[in-house]
Design goal:
Elements lengths: L2 H9 L2 H17 L3 E4 L1 H7 L6 E6 L3 H11 L3 E6 L4 E6 L3 E7 L1 E5 L6 E5 L2 H6 L9 E3 L8 E2 L4 H7 L1 E2 L6 H4 L3 H12 L2 E2 L1 H12 L11 H7 L5 H10 L17 H14 L8 H8 L5 H11 L3 H21 L7 H8 L4 H10 L3 H19 L3 H6 L7 H16 L29
């Protein structure tokens, strides 16, 4: 096994290792060569956690992507017939994709790409940045073979962001969003030539991507502690005006975002996954209702998210009212008030509420009460005679949680002090006298 395969398997969790093994098996049986590419390779080589598994093949990617979903009891969530690309949702919250190796040619900036089948080298070379243009072969014959046509490993080592070619921003202006996100999330510097390409794109006035292309990058930034600095960069290049011409200057809520960021990380020190809609609400806070509606439409949120963000502040006010109730006297009552709240709603309460009791109860819930509730396992409830999946099981679990939360901590008796040591024996000179 190559050093790269050993490093990969060391970075994957059990579910991801199973996914890679299944993809190897399916591709081998189908007579296709499969490569692990994109963010998975970038993050593995820089020692970061691997979030998504992106597979590239030189033949029929949708076929083996769907076969992988069936083998692992997953689901296809997106299928792009033009790019021959399939996105999968797998058990355990895993995300994976399978795409054909391809070439792309653009007649105009941000235009529709002319797509044709390509080799793995061609596919990697047409990507956005060198650090995303690395592939690892997973087939038995060449397992562990690394392909790096644009020398992305050197840029990873030097912590530099470099485009794979001089037309990267012209072909797809939305790549600027990713460049800014990577700069702030990974702490990499922009290579001088790439910086020049960016400035030329601004001067040439062809940074006019579809505003919806900003959505995934804003979503990824929302839980990061450098989000405000990234938003400032987006504003500096005039990219936030794609959402709303009014989203700049005094209408850009940088002070509110900084406060939101600080409060969010005080409650969720590792970052608040699921707080994206709260972040977006604060970002657009100073816009008029009409401007805010237009910005949300430009982001092209999924219908469920659009509905949720429209109801978020009203839901946060109800949650705050429940949390400030003078009738809350026990830990279990705080738990009851927050157990069904989603992260975005909680973050809006933290951001909007000036009441110390509300802030304290939210922190106590996440730091003490929720971890204590999670200690009650399914096995304990089953041992008490209840069948999983039944209403009685759920009721019994809640009763056990309430009992755990409200139980008074046992008084720790101080250990008795050890007896004092005996006094040292007097040491006389010479022999003792005879009686």
């Amino acid at each position: 096994m190559s050093d790269y395969m050993f490093a990969l398997e060391s970075h994957l969790d059990a579910g991801q290792n199973r996914t890679v093994a299944e993809m190897q098996r399916i591709a081998t049986e189908a007579g296709m060569t499969v490569w692990l590419t994109g963010g998975a390779m970038r993050d593995m080589l820089r020692g970061a956690p691997i979030r998504d598994l992106d597979f590239t093949v030189e033949r029929d990617a949708p076929k083996i992507g769907k076969a992988l979903a069936i083998a692992l009891n997953g689901a296809v969530v997106e299928d792009d017939s033009l790019k021959r690309w399939t996105e999968l949702e797998l058990p355990g919250g895993q995300r994976a994709s399978a795409g054909n190796a391809r070439t792309e040619k653009y007649a105009k900036a941000g235009g529709k790409a002319q797509i044709a089948p390509g080799t793995i080298h061609e596919d990697l070379s047409r990507r956005d940045f060198t650090i995303n243009a690395i592939g690892l072969c997973l087939n038995r014959g060449a397992k562990g073979l690394l392909v790096d046509p644009t020398n992305g490993q050197a840029d990873l080592a030097n912590k530099e962001l470099r485009t794979t070619n001089s037309m990267a921003f012209y072909d797809d202006p939305s790549r600027v969003f990713r460049l800014i996100r990577f700069r702030h999330v990974m702490g990499f510097e922009i290579a001088p030539r790439t910086q020049s390409q960016l400035e030329n794109a601004v001067l040439g006035d062809y940074l006019h991507p579809n505003p919806a292309a900003l959505t995934p990058d804003l979503r990824a930034l929302s839980s990061h502690e450098s989000a405000v600095a990234a938003v400032e960069d987006l504003d500096r290049f005039g990219l936030l005006k794609l959402l709303s011409p009014a989203l700049t200057g005094e209408n850009l809520n940088l002070a509110g975002l900084a406060r939101f960021e600080k409060q969010a990380h005080s409650v969720f020190p590792g970052g608040a996954e699921g707080g994206w809609l709260a972040f977006l609400t604060v970002l657009l806070e100073k816009l008029t209702p009409a401007e805010r509606a237009a910005a949300l439409a430009a982001l092209a949120l999924p219908p469920a998210e659009l509905k949720a963000v429209q109801k978020l502040q009203a839901g946060a006010k109800k949650r705050e009212a429940a949390l400030k109730s003078p009738n809350i006297h026990k830990p279990s009552q705080v738990w009851e008030a927050l157990k069904d709240a989603d992260t975005a709603e909680v973050l809006m309460v933290v951001y909007d509420s000036a009441l110390r009791v509300v802030q304290d109860r939210i922190r106590a819930y996440y730091q003490k009460y929720l971890p204590a509730a999670q200690e009650i396992t399914e096995e304990q409830v089953v041992a008490a005679g209840f069948k999983p999946g039944t209403p009685k099981f759920e009721k019994a679990w809640e009763a056990m949680v309430v009992a755990r939360l409200n139980a008074r901590p046992k008084k720790v008796e101080p250990e008795p002090e050890p007896p004092p040591p005996p006094p040292p024996m007097a040491m006389g000179r010479g022999r003792p006298a005879r009686a």
